[in-house]
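Quick entry between incubations.
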Amino acid sequence: MALGNLRDLYQQVILEHYKKPQHRGVAVPTHRSQRGHNPSCGDTIELTVTLELDGAGDRIEAVKFEGEGCAISMASVDLMAGAVRGKTIAEALEMVQRFQQMMKGEAEFPKEQKKLNVMQGVAQFPVRIKCANLGWHALRAALESVEPPAAGFISNEDE
Ligand code: ZN
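Done. Structure below.
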């Protein structure tokens, strides 16, 4: 019973982020970008990252995304974009690792990032894990890339 209620709550949070994402758009200026595709479900995202360059140059100022996909993929990337804001690249990469461990049922996030734990239930549905991981995979690829983004991604146009 209690577990059922908890699951309903998680589903509500996921649907809320799917219907009203808070981080849709393009991060400008775009310092890093990465497209992600999950063929098994059809989820496609394009992630853009703005870094804070005045400090050590390795802090995430904003992550935004565009694309289409199922509720789990879209909610996961929206939650991720909010959670990594203000983190250093190293901290964000640790969070990627932790999220992937959580999808195996091996970890969860500490209190200050507990919002991410709403995705925990996805670990019980192996076919949906790729959906949940998509945005995190793309973030890691974007952060680890040393290449500047492709010309098409650099834009001063309004979102
Ligand atoms: Zn999906």
